[in-house]
Amino acid sequence: MAIDRLITGLSAWIIAVIGMMGYGGIVLLMGIESACVPLPSEVIMPFSGYLVSTGRFDLNSVAIAGAFGCLFGSAVGYYLGATGGRWVIERYGRYVLIAPHELERAEHFFKKWGAAAVFFSRLLPVIRTFIAFPAGVARMSLLPFALYTLAGSYIWCLGLAYVGQQLGAHWTALAPYFHRFDGFVAVIVLTFGVWLLYNRIMGRRTADDSPRQARA
To answer: What secondary structure letter does DSSP report for 126?
Structure first.
């Protein structure tokens, strides 16, 4: 399958980068993964964990490198959302049924629940890659965003690296399971998006029909 070939090619590139750059490669790759680019951390961190089992890396250092990579990449996603996301939504949001006043709701949500949303999103495949952008659009406070990004990312990176360490040379056995789980999360996100779109369309139709019924 084309997706399997893509993942195989990405895995080979990831292994080469970490092999050449060491901890710096982990920072770079996890930074890319957190900058709204779906690079699989499920390959980056388990392979790094495998290198822990060989004695090349230290487990805690691997997790810290991964977490700071996530923080740097998330800063890029946050900046893009904060500087251009609002303009894009205000100008083109109506084409995907996003009303301008919903930006205010998003801001309110991130002010009230942003810390928890960022922290737990960092523990979820797929979602963790993109959470920084809406946080930037909503102008979430930077300090809580950075702290909870770092905390959630450290746990994620440590967990994956630990599993890779325990599996040793068999770390690649994780790939099929993570691939299925990524697909499962993606289906949930897509289903929620379709449901939300349907409700927006039906709500708009109801709003349009109400004045007509009143005149009749």
So the answer is: T
Report the candidate in 166, 195, 193, 189 with the shortest Cα–Cα distance to residue 45.
166
All structural domains of the chain with their residue ranges:
2-173
Task: Indicate the angle between helix axes 23-34 and 59-80, nearest 10 degrees.
Answer: 30
Q: What is the dihedral of CA 62, 56, 126, 129, to 10 degrees?
A: 50
Measured distance CA(135)–CA(82) in Å, rounded: 8
Q: Report the sign of the C-alpha dihedral through residues 159, 126, 122, 19, in that order.
A: positive
Structure token digits, residue 103? 């930006």
Is residue 97 over pLDDT 50?
A: no
Residue 124 has pLDDT above 80, yes or no: yes
- Which tokens go with 211? 């004045």
For 203, half-sphere exposure in the C-beta direction (CA atoms, 13 angstrom radius) is: 9
Q: 91-95 — which CB contacts under 8 Å span 24+ positions?
A: none
Q: Over 80: is that where the pLDDT of 138 sits?
A: yes
Buried b (16+ CB within 10 A) or exposed e, 90-117: eeeeeeeebeeeebeebbeebeeebbeb
Which range of 18-22, 136-140, 191-195, 210-214 scores highest in mean pLDDT? It is 18-22
Neighbours of 83 (CB within 10 A): 11
Going by C-alpha positions, the residue among 79, 22, 28 that lies closest to residue 48 is 22
- Could you tell me if 80 and 98 are in contact, meaning their C-beta atoms sit under 8 angstroms apart? no
Residue 153 corresponds to which tokens in the numbers above? 């990312």
